[in-house]
Amino acid sequence: MPELPEVETVRRGLEPVLSGARIRRVVQRRPDLRFPLPDRFVERLEGRTLERLDRRAKYILAYLDSGEVLAIHLGMTGRFSIAVPGGANGTQLGEFTHDAGHDPTHDHVVIETEAGATVTYNDARRFGYMSLIPGESLAAHPHFKALGIEPLGEELTAKFLSRKAEGRTADLKAFLMDQRIVAGLGNIYVCEALFRAGLSPHRTASVLARSGGKPIDRCERLVIAIREVLEAAIAAGGSTLRDYRHTDGSLGYFQHSFAVYGREGEACVRSGCHGTVRRITQAGRSTFYCGACQR
Questions:
Q1: Residue 280: its pLDDT value, please?
Q2: For a pLDDT cut of 90, what percent of the chain falls above it?
Q3: Domains in the chain, start-ordered, CATH in brackets?
Q4: Which of 91, 100, 221, 272 could form a disulfide with 197 if both were Cys (CB 3.0 to 4.6 A apart)?
Q5: 24, 44, 163, 285: which is the annotated catalytic residue?
Q6: Is 279 a catalytic residue?
Q7: Active-site residue identified among 48, 56, 58, 168
Q8: Is 232 strand, coil or helix?
Q9: Neighbours of 73 (CB within 10 A)
């Protein structure tokens, strides 16, 4: 499933084409994705101006001049392709490492702008979904009301994380992937952040806090590591995105920079460490870490 950097990469790819664009025509080729598409979906989009594109956790948010917000979740295989007049047709945003291939029979929603751009949503497994939500009630909507803070926002501090971690018996991996605490962190980047911070995924979350919820040094390191790994992945165009092209035509391959994820049995990349990368299963997900330098 795409994680936060991949969703942000897709949002940035869509922004030059959709931000400020007026929607001329919408083609809806089926009544549902993972869930039924909103009532009068086409009618509520056609003729509207898309004022801006934002992201919340793993959702892309398209703000319309009607006051509604088109919330898009990519699910497992959702991706967009873009065709613009005089440009490269079919530029795809979201060609994932575990790629289902682009079969046009899975092109479910097509948006055409008055400027002549065509944006197509393709989803082979249909685990993605789209909702139209009144902007004033977005935060209270079931998709968003339980979400925690943004990991790249100012709210993520060592003080915040240590308060949430105090007394918690869950392991660090489960704690960081709890979307009610920090929204958007997923398996790949939690593994990478724990490695950068030198913390074992076996440790309980409470190791981040002193008595009274005050942060300790390892908590400070973890906050820095979370920010660094997400920012680096976004700059590289994501990791599960196999073939995202930047505006200058260069390709993003953050997966080539993984320190631990997917590297079971390989030598640790940390200077001076002679350990090897291990893989364990936590809550049904693979965790990769170095047993020698992550403590």
A1: 97
A2: 78
A3: 4-137 (3.20.190.10), 158-290 (1.10.8.50)
A4: 221
A5: 285
A6: no
A7: 58
A8: helix
A9: 21
